[in-house]
From TrEMBL:
Its cofactor is pyridoxal 5'-phosphate. Keywords: Pyridoxal phosphate. Residues 13-298 form the Tryptophan synthase beta chain-like PALP domain. This is Pyridoxal-phosphate dependent enzyme. It comes from the Bacteria. The keyword Cell division does not apply.
Length: 308
């Protein structure tokens, strides 16, 4: 994927997305000992950065074929909304344990929900069955080149506003956001290093970078419900090539960082979004006195089930 691919993607999706604000907090900067700039994708359409990749993927389909995906929530909402904008049908496979607030949003955006057991194998099997039955085009939430490029446009916008960033941090789940972010930093940054944040409980990406092959998770016991998926063969090579490192954080650190953003910045973010800030606070010495971008991935939190 080249620089022009990102530029063309951004031009293509711009009418359908928000150029989200970049916010900062003096209080959090003091705590971190660094200049932190938060790219607030919690204000994106659909409540998360995934609207970018979903829109790019849908807009590049030929004809009016229906689409199908499997997602715990944010990509489910994004694809439903992108499909609605493009006038196509969207089938969304969701684990039965997905937050009700996310199921409600998918239904509101017109997505047809099919529930399944909360495992990656069950999600993939259900999506493949719909693909066979309906002729729908499968769009993977993260392991799709059009999706990855679309996700990278958040970092593009951040670097347009702050071209002198020394680091950009993003949470790591399926790898689409960090892969796209690393591409954008490579082509539009100036010696800008990309670092992932990942829970210890689901540290497959950290282990994958160490072993050189895609590793799986044995548990999904994390409050960061958007980060329970694993890397794919499209995202992993980009992560290997362009991502500097991955910092793992504890559940307590995620919850503390999430609460900090709510209290100090007065914005609603979901647990997955707090992982990048938690990584900065865990490794303060690495980012001391540096200018650091943080991709706030989304704000689709179940208000009836807050972790604090």
């Amino acid at each position: 994927m080249q620089k022009d691919t990102l530029i063309q993607c951004h031009r293509r999706i711009r009418p359908y997305i928000h150029n989200t604000p970049v916010l900062s907090s003096r209080a959090i900067n003091r705590m971190a000992g660094a200049d932190l700039l938060f790219k607030c994708e919690n204000f994106q359409k659909g409540g998360a950065y995934k609207m970018r990749g979903a829109t790019n993927a849908v807009l590049q389909l030929f004809g009016k074929l229906p689409v199908v995906t499997h997602s715990s929530g944010n990509f489910a909402q994004a694809l439903s909304l992108a499909a609605k904008s493009a006038g196509v049908e969207a089938f969304i496979v969701m684990p039965s344990t997905a937050p009700q607030v996310k199921k409600n949003a998918v239904a509101e955006y017109g997505g047809k929900i099919i529930e399944c057991e909360p495992s990656l194998a069950a999600r993939e099997a259900a999506a493949q069955e719909i693909e066979r039955e309906t002729g729908a085009v499968l769009i993977h939430p993260s392991n799709d080149e059009n999706v990855i490029v679309g996700q990278g446009t958040a970092c593009m916008e951040l670097l347009e506003e702050h071209p002198d960033l020394e680091f950009v941090l993003a949470p790591v789940g399926g790898g689409g956001l960090i892969a796209g972010t690393s591409l954008a930093a490579h082509y539009f940054g100036t010696s800008c290093r990309v670092i992932g944040g990942e829970p210890f409980a689901v540290d497959d990406a950290y282990r994958s970078l160490k072993s050189g092959r895609i590793e799986a998770n044995e548990t999904t016991d994390t409050v960061a419900d958007g980060l329970k998926t694993q890397l794919g063969d499209k995202s992993f090579p980009l992560i290997q090539r362009y991502v500097d490192s991955i910092i793992r954080v504890t559940e307590a650190e995620i919850i503390k960082a999430m609460r900090l953003i709510w209290e100090r910045m007065k914005i609603v973010v979901e647990p997955s979004s707090a992982v990048a800030l938690a990584a900065v606070l865990r490794k303060k010495e690495k980012f001391a006195d540096r200018k650091v971008g943080i991709i706030v991935s989304g704000g689709n939190v179940d208000l009836g089930n807050l972790p604090f």
